[in-house]
Each structure stands twice: as structure tokens, then as C-alpha cells.
Amino acid sequence: MSNVFAVSVLVSIVSFFCYGVGCFFSNQVRQDFYRYGLVWLRIPTGVLQLLASVGLIFGLTNSWLMQISAAFLAIMMLAALFVRVKIGDSWLLRVPALFYLLLNLFIFLEAQGFEQLRKLLLIF
Q1: How far is residue 16 from each of residues 74, 76, 115, 118, measured CA to CA in Å?
Q2: SS3 of 1, please?
Q3: DSSP helix, strand, coil percent of the chain (3-state; round to 5)
């Protein structure tokens, strides 16, 4: 496992675990979901992000689980990016969703062993 891959997985685990917990307890996250018009998705989002972060942890010993978890998080971040565009957020507010989309896409590709494809696409 390369250092870049290990750090990427760690960043994703910590970030999504913290955000998942925040979906239950943070007033800021509660206000954000209200602003998105998706109040009903706050708790399911928290549960899914917690499960996916745990999936990344267990994925350290099971590449299939790593792939599924990273792909799921990348899809969630693509949806988050669409929501940000739909509600008219600035590019600055869209950057985190784009960053985590690319980060989890990298994790997915690395877990797949697509090193040649990654080099061809010049991703990381």
C-alpha cells in the first residue's frame, strides 16, 4: 500500500465518520440540510456515511469492501455536487464535494489495481 493511498483512505475515513456523526448532533449540518431542501435525508446520510467509513476501515483487509465503500462515497459526493449546483452555491462551496469525489474515485481505482489506467488519466 502506497503512502498516498494510505493517507487518502485515512482522510476519507476520518472525514466521513465525523460528518456522519455530525448529521446526528451538529446544528450546522441540520441547517445545511434545511438549506438544501433535503431535511428528510440528514439521518439516512449520516447512517450511510458512517457505514461507508467503517467499510473503508474493514476494506483495509478486503479490497472488494474498499472498492464498494469508496464507490458509494464517490457517488454520494457526485450527488452532493449536483445539489450544490442546483441550489446555486458558489464554486468555493462546491470544492469540498469535488475534492471528496476525486479522493474516493482515487481510492476506488487504487483498490481496483488500475495503476495503468490511473497513470493514463494522470490522476494522482
Answers
A1: 11, 11, 25, 24
A2: coil
A3: 85, 0, 15
At what angle are helices 3-25 and 91-112 packed, to 10 degrees? 130
DSSP 59: T
Instruction: Give the pLDDT confidence of 1-17 residue by residue, as tens digits.
Output: 678 999 999 999 999 99
- The H-assigned helical ranges of 26-90 are 27-36, 42-58, 63-86
Sketch the domain layout of the chain as residue ranges.
3-121
Contacts of 10 (CB under 8 A, 6+ apart): none
Average pLDDT, the chain: 91
- The torsion defined by the Cα of 5, 13, 83 and 89, in degrees rounded to 10, comes to -80
Query: What pLDDT was estimated at residue 112?
Result: 84
Mean pLDDT of 69-86: 97
Residue type, 39: V
